[in-house]
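Annex B. Sample input.
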Amino acid sequence: MEKVVLAYSGGLDTSIILKWLQKERGMDVIAYVADLGQGEELDGIRRKALRTGASKVYVEDLREEFARDFVFAALKANAIYEGTYLLGTSIARPLIAKRQVEIARKEKANAVAHGATGKGNDQVRFELTFAALGPDLKVIAPWREWNFGARADLIEYAKRHGIPVPVTKEKPYSSDRNLLHISFEGGILEDPGREPDEDMFVLSVSPEKAPDRPTYVSIGFEKGVPVSVDGKKLASAKLLARMNELGGGNGIGRIDIVENRYVGMKCRGVYETPGGTILHIAHRAMESLTMDREVMHLRDSLIPYFSSLVYNGFWYSPEMRMLMAAVEESQKNVTGTVRVKLYKGNCIVVGRSSPCSLYSPAHATFEASGAVYNQADATGFIRLNGLRLRIEAMLRKGRRG
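Annex B, continued. Sample output.
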């Protein structure tokens, strides 16, 4: 029998795919579950995969690697797609696919399979990673091959084969959860004018129900990486989980957007990213104190490109390696502590300090201080910067005259 490693979540799509690969394609299916912080969603998942037909099940705890090498790597670049989305789903896929290739090698499987649809971005993210790390492996994408037309067809197939699924016809939107966020899309959310139901949210309370008193928290950074909360050192996964608790309890991190998918269409998504939102704001505040102006502006000009590479699935590309090297160089002095105030959906920076600070009170003060800054020097500075403007204005006036 041909052996395939399936990226398995226990949800509707991959449950059906497992059975379909076994029954319709006659394959030996090894189910691989990546634990990126789904929590109780993984309860009983090994048993479910075996009951559905898997010959073997891997449940891999990748939480620390995910937070340390992927989430925080993107944080150092201030990656944010189309000015809003912190890439919670996008950044998980290259790690899932990387480990999937490793398991395929270990099990001597010649194929890998995923549950991404032919309309979405995830198929691209999975398969570009396979191309970069396992180019010899056969890729099976059932959504592009089988005859099921909609998720309702999958639900009927599941009933015929006795596969329990968490999705019903009455509540058909899908969700994806990890340590960084949870996403919701499809079903009732396909109407971009409809406000999401409050009972849909998982990681956060609504701002209206958040505490009436603010929460203050201090975040320590070392070379752009968050390493402590309120002075306590934490491993990456635990730190991100702690920030989720603080942010979610104060109604922080909800967004409702219409984004541009890589495959060409627009899609409405609702996201909760409480901890990531706080860390993103705090990281920028730390950079404002420690990063050279021109380095910051150059790095900021790369944010849209870096974010698109993540969103489009090019994590393991040559251009991403080059950008990562530039980001690492930019973060060498991004060390210190940022204090933020969390209040009813808002994250407000209220203080920052650093041993690498470039802030000079002597130069910044509005008080009289001729010793370090001669204000008269600004006259020539402005005249030289305005020279091309004066020349252009004179020539324009001469042409009109």
